[in-house]
Amino acid sequence: MFGYSLAGYGEMIADRVRMEAFAQALRRTVKPGNVVMDIGTGPGIFAVLACELGASRVIAVEPDSIIQVAREVAISNRCRDKIEFIEKMSTSLELPIQADVIVSDMRGVLPLLGRNIPSVVDARRRFLAPRGTLIGRRDIMWVALIEAPQSFGRLAEPWEHNLLKQDLSPARKRAVNAPQIARASPNQLLAKPKAWMTLDYTTIEDPNVQGELEWAIERSGTGHGLLVWFDADLVDGVGFSNAPGAPETIYGSQFFPWQQPVSLAVGQRVCVKLEANLVGDDYSWRWTTDIELPNGTGGPRIHFEQSSLQGEVISLETLQKRASVYVPQLSEEVRIRRRTLEMIDGRASLEDIARQLVAEFPSRFARWQQALSYAGTVSEELGE
User: Fold this and answer.
1) For residues 146 and 226, is the Cβ–Cβ distance under 8 A?
2) Which tens digits make up the pLDDT trace of 251-269?
3) Strand ranges for the chain from DSSP E
4) What whole-number distance in Å separates Cα of residue 361 and Cα of residue 359?
5) What does the domain layout of the chain look like in residue ranges?
6) Euclidean distance between CA atoms 295 and 286, whole angstroms
7) pTM
8) pLDDT (0 to 100) of residue 1
9) pLDDT, tens digit, for every residue of 184-229?
10) By C-alpha distance, which of 255, 109, 258 is closest to 176?
11) For 32-86, how does the pLDDT look when each residue is reduced to its tens digit (9 = 90+)?
12) Would you call the peptide bond into 136 cis, given omega within 30 degrees of 0 as the criterion?
């Protein structure tokens, strides 16, 4: 689950391109008497707008504590009685009603963020009324080869040139396997962008995506990697994009660096396989690049195999704990958490639980108020 600060939500609301697109989509879609579901409502902006457009009922779903701000915003706009706020993940809900319109914006720099797609698929199956409308409807993801010396330099140069003149190549290897947010202009592209994948939320089932792309270089330059962005299609005729040259949004684009900069000549061919696989609650990326040398140059092609997994920093101790032969033992902290969960049985109050924790773990809790704070946090995270 990806949470935002209040300031982060403020930045999203200040994104005029995004806000106007979603507002226009809702104005075209919501009819008087409709039931509207807002998944990931945040501070409740779209839920309130749905009420103002005549919705008879709005179900606003948000697992983060920002939902309290949404409740207060609804009161300030005199529509609290029409909005049902639910502080849960949408995938854990059971509702006796279906929605005429489901709106959600859980994407980040790319639509492939966390469990965005599984959440949309679940909502479409269980909560969308026949002939109901999803906002957004689809995202088209694009890939281009990019000349980006500044973006690449921010990743590689600190490890290539350091004041102490140390060999920091192990860190550099990881750095160039870590996708980063970047902002670029159209004149940085070395060939026309290619459509990589269309995510049609009215039919999509699989959150994993992959595809192969090929370019012939159209202008000479130095290639530093791939730039990926999306065109959002919310409803007919309404959308927005984070493409280079489009009106600036909060998103930026996603930069996938190569291991090394490569000088590229007009006509030179570049093949890329790009794939994203949902692992747990996050995506693992892999990008493989083959670059043919210019005609007549001779020698082997340039080949890069990269992945976000190679960009992770994992200690040897952590890897050992994941090995199949490792015999794990519970730490004291985990034993305390397990005991707390055992006592959350629908009968004991938090004070009862806290006082029992003090009795059983006196070295961890000097006062019962400390145990109360701990038990309250566990209850908030995992209780009902």
Assistant:
1) yes
2) 899 999 999 999 999 999 9
3) 35-39, 57-61, 83-86, 99-104, 128-135, 138-146, 180-182, 194-200, 209-216, 221-235, 238-241, 253-264, 269-279, 282-291, 302-307
4) 6
5) 6-136, 139-314, 332-382
6) 28
7) 0.87
8) 46
9) 999 999 999 999 999 999 999 999 999 999 999 999 999 999 999 9
10) 258
11) 999 999 999 999 999 999 999 999 999 999 999 999 999 999 999 999 999 999 9
12) yes
Residue reference for tokens 């996708």 = 179
Q: Give the pLDDT score at 320.
A: 81
Q: Collect all residues with Cβ–Cβ distance below 8 Å to 94 and sequence separation of at least 6.
A: none
Q: Residues 109-164: pLDDT tens digits?
A: 999 999 999 999 999 999 999 999 999 999 999 999 999 999 999 999 999 999 99
Q: Are 135 and 103 in contact (CB under 8 A)?
A: yes
What pLDDT is stored for residue 296 in this prediction?
Answer: 57
List C-alpha distances in Å: 252 to 3, 99, 185: 19, 32, 11
Residues in the chain: 384
pLDDT at 88 exceeding the cut of 70: yes
Please write down the long-range contacts of 119-124, taking CB distance under 8 Å and 24 or more positions apart: 119/39, 119/89, 119/90, 119/91, 120/39, 120/201, 120/204, 121/201, 121/204, 121/205, 121/207, 122/90, 122/91, 123/37, 123/39, 123/90, 124/201, 124/202
Q: 331: part of which helix (H) or strand (E)?
A: none
Cα–Cα separations (whole angstroms), residue 195 to 112, 141, 198, 210: 15, 6, 8, 12
Residue 43 three-state SS: coil
Second CATH level (architecture) for the domain 139-314: Distorted Sandwich (2.70)
Taking the alpha carbons at both ends of the chain, their separation in whole angstroms is 18
Give SS3 for 305. Answer: strand
Identical fold, 6-136 and 139-314: no
Q: pLDDT averaged over the chain?
A: 93
To the nearest 10 degrees (0 to 180), the angle between helices 332-343 and 350-360 is 140
Phi-psi region of 266 (alpha: psi -120 to 50; beta: other; left: phi over 0): beta
**Residue 117 in contact with residue 219, Cβ under 8 Å?**
no
Q: Considering the domain 6-136 in this protein, what is its CATH number?
A: 3.40.50.150
